[in-house]
Amino acid sequence: MIKRSHFKANALAYLLITPQVLVTLAFFYWPAIQGLLQSLMLSDPFGRRSQFVWLENFVRIFTDVLYLKSIGITLFFSLATALVSLAIGLAIGCLANRALRAKALIRTLLIWPYAVAPAISGILWLFLLHPSYGVVAYFLKNVVGMHWNPLLNGNDALFLVVVASAWKQISYNFVFFMAGLQAIPLSLIEAAAMDGAGPLRRFWVITFPLLSPTIFFLTVMNIIYAFFETFGVIHTVTQGGPGGATNTLVYKVYQDGFIGLNMGASAAQSLVLMALIITVTVLQFRFVERRVQYTT
Amino acid sequence: MMVERTPILDTCTYIFLMVGICVVGFPIFYAITAATLPLDQVARVPMPLVPGDQFLINIHAAWNKVHLGRQLVNSFIMAAGITFGKIVVSMLGAFSIVYFDYRFRKVAFATVFCTLMLPVEVRILPTYEMAANLLGPLQWLVNVLHLNPAVQWVVGNNFEISLEWSLLNSYTGLILPLVASATCTFLFRQFFLTIPEELCEAAKLDGASPMVFFWKILLPLSVTNIAALVVIEFVYGWNQYLWPLLITTSPNMTTAVIGLKDLIPQADDVPMWNVAMAGSLLVMAPPVLVVLLMQRWFVKGLVEKEK
Prior knowledge:
Strand content of chain A: under 5%
Oligomer: heterodimer
Strand content of chain B: under 5%
Number of helices of chain B: 17
CATH superfamily of chain A: MetI-like
CATH class of chain A: Mainly Alpha
Number of strands of chain A: 2
Radius of gyration of chain B: 26 Å
Structural class of chain B: mainly alpha
CATH architecture of chain B: Orthogonal Bundle
Radius of gyration of chain A: 24 Å
Largest sheet of chain B: none
Number of domains of chain B: 1
């Protein structure tokens, strides 16, 4: 789209868009094309010699037990993180929406974890759940009676990174649920109340269906967050361990490519992730158009 | 309001809300407590929940143990650079796309918009290679066109074109690759499209050049959008992890969020969790303060940006 009243095309128009296009070409498209080529090549770690091998790298990663395991871990990790942060965000959002007084204070108290870096969230929870010094770990071991050691046990470690990643994301979900809840017409809720529907029934019959566009949108955003932005949590807290139990797909690309210098395999893995995010983005944009109609 | 408001229900709401706020706030309360305790108390299990008086001592210890001072400066430069760069680059780009009619307008917009699908996580190595040598594509061109043998033949002696410009361990490298933003450009584009046509017509009648129109009219109208984006992008820039990890190798050039990793006590270390927590609080303080102090802009930015 363009303004009906606009300026004549001249050198200035091109000049204004140049920085944007240059950075995009240099740091997005050129590397993406390089990655595409690398995924079809087999090269030695020093990059001196490379050979065109068609899809061999893809065949290799999809027959690699460790890669398949990493897919499973990533799916579990992302779904668990999204589910935990969405559920808590929704619960707190509904409660805060009900509160009549101190709304601004409540929002202030809940909003700040958004600004905490995932890596720092990881450090805070590592301390809370540390097998020797953590207070939550102490509670789990002595009150619940669990054998708890995220430094040695893979499942415990996965639980730790899920909690650390989900905690930070609660604020984000809370902000959007609050916006979504405030957009629900009060008349609907009041009509249901007059017909004798209790608060829980009103939630399931009116609030939840009207919130579903927000829930869908947030589910997509949370899964993207869990896939791509939790790298810092994994890198500071577990480094993919113990025994590969928290080795998510993005961490594995970093490990195989940047640390292990296995260019072909890393590039093929990157391409799989690229295909995934393209699918998700396209899906989301198809849905967003419906979402806008739905809410207005 | 017709909805029932029984005192019991209201009390329950507030109680659950308090519980929720406490659960969300507990990690930070615990971190603050730990950061104020001496080592022998923080190593006790379970740790006492009453704050001590060692906060400044622990901050001092964290400051000295890793290059925290330098790294906080790096984080600030990076976050400020990304924020400023992103806003300038996207605003000018959106201005060009919305207010000028030229052939490649749509192509340019699509080019920028499709970067949404290419986060740094899916192009780790090649982007690193690009930053390691910004002239890589030119070198590739030289090799493809066999310019080296050609030049050798012309010059007559051993001569090789070797182009190199590395961004590793530099502020340019930390900032430049992150200033292109599809979402910011899109946001400004949408906003510019809502500005009344008459403003531009009037400016043109008065003989204003495009840049005068931009400075005198568009920029003042965009102030609230800019404020909202400043909050979001500052937090985004400060909390970057993967990119600074890739392109900085020296502890003097890396950012504070990454530097914190060295404060975590490992298995054989003295369990100085008080120092680790003090460092963590110090590093998370700037973005948390920005969000809290500019809360109104933050919520606006967050919700608008995802539209």
